[in-house]
Amino acid sequence: MQEQANEPTRTSNMLSKMMEIGSKVQPFSKESRDKAPRIRDAKVVHSVCPYCAVGCSLNVYVKDGKVIDIEGNPDSFINHGTLCPKGSATFQYTINPSRLTKVLYRAPYSDHWEVKSQEWAMEQIAQRVKKARDESFVERLEDGREVNHTLAMASLGGATLDVEENYVIKKLFNAGLGILSIENQARI
Ligand code: SF4
């Protein structure tokens, strides 16, 4: 992320000038005079939309150590300040009281979720992947051809995966575990 100083009160100054246009001060209410943009005094941190490979540039507004707004970066030659619906929702994605921050597990036939540690979840995933692979791995077909694959497992990636993650997925799942069905919803 690259940080730059925000232009603190540009909108406010414009408002003041508009009030003084002509020979008379315009009849703005006190509320209008006191209005300020929500990003006043915030710092702008440039970032990149996490959703897809278009790579639209974001202005992340930070105040008192907290992200208070995220908008498209008008100086970007990629998106010129625009964002698609997914990119426009980046703030809600980042700052959201409903966002899960703990591992939740619902056991088979259970009617409730249990909070688990991340270590427990990783161990469960590793054990289940190994079990499924052991039970379904095929070294040779009936005609003797060597295939070394499993058709019981698959991987579906998303647009937020970066190049390095996709490389590891392909290496581990395909070359390492013998999974054939590896897909990604991104179509750029
Ligand atoms: S998801 Fe939308 S806003 Fe984000 S990079 Fe892709 S096109 Fe741009």
Description:
- The chain is α+β, with helices and mostly antiparallel strands and 188 residues long.
- The protein folds into 2 domains: 93 residues, N-terminal domain of TfIIb; 48 residues, no CATH class.
- The chain is 30% helix and 27% strand.
- The protein contains 6 helices and 9 strands.
- Helix 6 links the parallel strand 8 and strand 9.
- 10% of the residues are buried.
- The site of iron/sulfur cluster has 11 residues, from helix 3.
Compose a concise summary of this entry:
Helices cover 30% and strands 27% of the residues. The chain is α+β, with helices and mostly antiparallel strands.
Write the layout of secondary structure elements.
Layout: E1 2-4, H1 10-19, H2 30-34, E2 43-48, E3 57-63, E4 66-72, H3 85-88, H4 90-94, E5 103-105, E6 114-116, H5 118-136, E7 138-140, E8 146-157, H6 163-176, E9 179-184
Parallel strand pairs: 8-9
Antiparallel strand pairs: 1-2, 2-3, 3-4, 5-6, 7-8
The protein binds iron/sulfur cluster.
Residues 49, 51-52, 54-56, 79, 83-84, 86-87 line the site of iron/sulfur cluster (SF4).
